[in-house]
TrEMBL record:
The keyword Isomerase appears for this protein: yes
Native organism: Emticicia aquatica
Annotated signal peptide: none
Domain L-fucose isomerase C-terminal: 337-463
Keywords attached to this entry: Carbohydrate metabolism, Isomerase
InterPro entries: Fuc_isomerase_C, Fucose_isomerase_N/cen_sf
Protein's UniProt name: L-fucose isomerase C-terminal domain-containing protein
């Protein structure tokens, strides 16, 4: 259960009763949405509202006591509210978390002195002060809305998703397993720019991983356990038992590496060292990790797995790294998304363990067992990509929404057909701005959440298609 701090603004020449009603209402809404409210008691200040500097101090002290659990702050304005009280509270907390500003609507039949709110105007004043203080904030989709309304509750849940993304990205730890494949300049990135943004990369040489895996045997209990888990995850098809054991041993070592360094995600060298020096693909392990919300990208695409993690945080569901791979006949707004076979199981209802035919032409198909085969059916689509732009010294991203379709597609590997409005314009943007051939897909509609989190709070350069 995620926790939000709540500031209820008040202003003494507006009706106090509105503050008391707002406090009761928002507590009920939080219970309904399974959120934990951190707010002043009605006896801590006048009805639990914040107006004076002393009340701001009390509210800030409460938030500080819960600083480890508060992921964001909701500002409620049941009346005009005191803009300084709200801004001072946020400044004193030093929390640096997302802030959502809400304002109650007035009723045309209750515009007298006893009932009039003027929150429409008060919200502008509060935002003006937050802007002056340098405090980042989010807005509801409608300028005024009541907490009991569905439109506000959707705004609140979207805001919570923004908070998840921001908190996650500011502390994410990514494991880079092996060296970037020599032929893949496209996945270059800057560790230093990422670190400046709170994103830590832990590296390990692929030889260390393979060396540990080669010391394991099927007689090791942990290998047997992982083999059972892999067999339960996906049908092995024609994959030989020896290859399944190889996959399981590698899976054991990767899990140990992630646990040792408390990693949230990984980017793994695959093409072509694993096949040549170990004799299998790591796709199945990557799929299992991604399905279990520990995203994994191939070709040491660190910013690719960072993109997977951001989308996962926004939606609460697994992401997949894909290639912008092929045109779809002559339809300008459709294309084929593809990868050898490492997508999370959620995208592959017909999943099976097989080989990677393209890679097999150079390393031998027998050395590519572990790649997954499966077609992604129609589902919602959010796509996007985070990248470090070293010449500019920034992190940049593009995001958008579309649909995955059931259009016919006769090929192998992990595959899907995407339909995106003005796809040709998007491809021009991707090419002109030096983005990678890898993109990330998620079965959701979360582009607005990602834009708010990445642009407003992370301060990155974001293009929303």
């Amino acid at each position: 259960m995620l926790s939000l701090g709540i500031i209820i603004g008040n202003r003494d020449f507006f009706p106090d009763s509105l503050v008391e009603k707002a406090r009761t209402e928002i507590i009920d809404v939080f219970a309904k949405l399974k959120l934990k409210p951190i707010l002043l008691d009605s006896t801590d200040t006048k009805l639990g509202g914040v107006e004076t500097y002393k009340e701001a101090q009390k509210c800030a002290d409460l938030f500080k006591a819960h600083r480890e659990e508060i992921v964001g702050v909701l500002v409620l304005l049941p009346n005009f509210g005191d803009e300084k009280g709200v801004a001072d509270t946020l400044k004193l907390t030093g929390l640096n978390v997302p802030v959502l500003v809400q304002a109650y609507p007035d009723e045309l039949t209750k515009m007298n002195v006893v009932n009039r709110r003027d929150s429409w105007c008060g919200k502008i004043s509060v935002c003006n002060n937050l802007y002056q203080y340098g405090i980042k904030y989010s807005l509801t989709s409608q300028h005024v809305s009541s907490p009991s309304e569905a439109v506000f509750q959707k705004d609140l849940l979207d805001f919570v998703a923004v908070c998840r993304v921001v908190k996650g990205l500011r502390n994410v730890r990514i494991g880079a397993v092996g060296a970037r494949p020599g032929a893949f300049n496209t996945v270059r990135y800057s560790e230093k720019i990422l670190q400046r943004n709170g994103i830590t990369v832990t590296t390990v040489d692929l030889s260390e991983i393979l060396g540990k895996a080669n010391k394991l045997t099927i007689d090791d209990t942990v290998v047997k356990q992982h083999l059972e888990a892999i067999n339960a995850y996906a049908p092995k098809g024609k994959t030989p038992n020896e290859a399944m054991i190889q996959i399981a041993k590698l899976d054991v070592v990767l899990k140990e590496f992630m646990e040792e360094y408390a990693l949230d995600a990984t980017a793994i060298q695959c093409w072509t060292s694993l096949q040549q020096n170990y004799g299998c693909n790591v796709c199945t392990s990557m799929s299992i990790m991604s399905e279990n919300m520990l995203p994994s990208a191939c070709e040491v695409d660190v910013t690719g797995t960072l993109s997977m993690y951001a989308m996962q945080l926004a939606s609460g569901s697994p992401s997949a790294l894909v290639d912008w791979n092929n045109n779809y006949a002559d339809d300008p707004d459709k294309c084929v998304l593809f990868h050898c076979g490492n997508w999370a199981k959620s995208f592959l209802p017909d999943i099976s363990i097989g080989t990677a035919p393209i890679l097999g032409t150079t390393v031998g198909v027998e050395n590519t067992y572990g790649a997954l085969d499966g077609r992604t059916p129609a589902m919602p689509l959010t796509y996007g990509r985070i990248s470090t732009d070293d010449p500019k010294g920034i992190i940049k991203a593009y995001i958008g929404e579309g649909e995955l379709t059931n259009d016919p597609l006769s090929t192998f590997g992990n595959r899907a057909v995407a339909q995106i409005s003005d796809l040709q314009g998007l491809m021009k943007y991707v090419c002109r701005n030096g983005f990678e051939h890898h993109v990330v897909m998620n079965a959701s509609k979360t582009a607005a959440i990602l834009e708010e989190a990445l642009s407003n709070y992370m301060g990155w350069e974001v293009y929303k298609h």
